[in-house]
Amino acid sequence: MFGWEFPPFNSGGLGVACQGLVRGLDSQGVKITFVLPKKQDYHSDHCSFSFGRGGDSVSELMRERSTAITSTNTKIKGVDVLLSPYLTEESYIESYFENNIESYSAFLKKRKKNSIYSPNLIGEVLRYAQKARAIAESEKFDIIHCHDWLSFPAAFEAKKVSGKPLVFHVHATEFDRVGKDCLNREIYLIEREGFKKADRIIAVSDYTRRKIIDNYPVDPKKIEVVPNAIESENYSGDSQPVNLKKRGKKIVLFVGRLTFQKGPDYFLRAAQKVSSLNKDAYFVFSGSGDMERRLIEESVRMGISDKVIFAGFLRGDELARLYKAADLYVMSSVSDPFGLTSLEALASGTPVLVSRQSGASEMLSHCLKVNFWDVDQMADKILAVINYPELRDALRENGSGEVKKFSWNDSAMKCVSVYKELLKN
């Protein structure tokens, strides 16, 4: 299995989904070698490696993994590449300099001396693919399972040397991430090749399945829908809510990357409208991304900066406590293949309002729904929840029950069925 992050060192929902699926497959007796990028750290005299965010060492990850997966069925292999799930061409270069503290001229000079890093993001993806090929030659396995476009070239190299069936698991397409007007053609072509050459495609929702069929030349019969799920116990425990409120204040929460796909700007515009009608409402952004500075500046321009809190990227117990503190969770995504955060909120006992442009909107009944672009209706529904406790309590009670139907064991069983079918052929 080729992935891009794994909790506790994750920067988004992809890692959470990978962890949940691996646990589910583990419970089905599936043995997994999970191949994960790690980046070289030049801060010390001796060459060490880290996963994801700075300082997350391989040994630390393995220690943490023992608490995340209580079995010897899963092992993690690291590949020294500078990649993460939501990396762009610009942030690749930025991340390189951030982790190496050197000038651009030194960067170019090092490249001429066989630097381990490639000159661009696609080059780094292809370098990872060659590393993956070597791993595939040394491992014994029956199935290759990869997550999203960055890992497809690696998975395809593994397929070329092994001849084993390849499953392409799609959590988002380039059309979701940046919209059809801003497509990165190289990424689009990698996705297109992935859909063509994969033996089976797993989509996280029917919404995603339709997105693939509408935008890529692919045989619909190859696509299997396997919904994401949630480990409810991580959010329904005894964590105490974050103390953000004064008497009578209401908390409306956004959790996600602060980037185009997640629609944080639409949430902010709705916040402005709500604030003009309810002075006791506060709005919390939990996440980070390329739109953060713009959102902060926009909240000042709107005159609501005293009502908006930017909490940064949170995970684990901190995030669970924030969910519990909220009166309403809003997922304002422009295009969200699933929307795991909506399940996390429901498991925490928090009512949710989700964009109709999401997989979660198809799968959830006990929540409010709105088109992401309809800021007026979004504001109206936020006001309804914070002004009417009866509505809030009904959504909370029914949503908390509904979220229990989502199980990673069920998702894993569907994946195992796909594996078995491929191995018969």
Instruction: Provide the helix percentage.
Output: 40-55%
Q: Would you count the extended β strands for me?
A: 13
Mean pLDDT: 84
Identify low-pLDDT runs: 40-70, 99-104, 111-116
Describe the global form. globular
Which series of helices and strands comes N to C? Answer: HEEHEHHHEHEHHEHEEHEHEHEHEHEHHH
Look at the helices and sheets and give the structural class.
alpha/beta
What is the number of helical segments per DSSP (H or I, 4+ residues)? 17
N-end to C-end Cα span: 20 Å
The radius of gyration over CA amounts to 22 Å
Query: Order of strands in the sheet with the most strands?
Result: 10-9-8-11-12-13
The proportion of strand residues reads: 5-15%
Largest sheet: 6 strands, parallel
Textual characterization of the structure:
- By secondary structure, the chain is α/β, with parallel strands linked by helices.
- The protein contains 17 helices and 13 strands.
SSE layout and pairings?
Blueprint: H1 13-27, E1 32-41, E2 48-50, H2 58-68, E3 74-80, H3 89-100, H4 104-112, H5 121-138, E4 144-147, H6 148-162, E5 166-170, H7 174-178, H8 185-197, E6 200-203, H9 206-215, E7 223-225, E8 250-255, H10 264-277, E9 281-286, H11 292-302, E10 308-310, H12 316-325, E11 328-331, H13 340-347, E12 352-355, H14 359-363, E13 368-370, H15 375-387, H16 389-402, H17 408-424
Parallel strand pairs: 1-3, 4-5, 5-6, 6-7, 8-9, 8-11, 9-10, 11-12, 12-13
Antiparallel strand pairs: 1-2
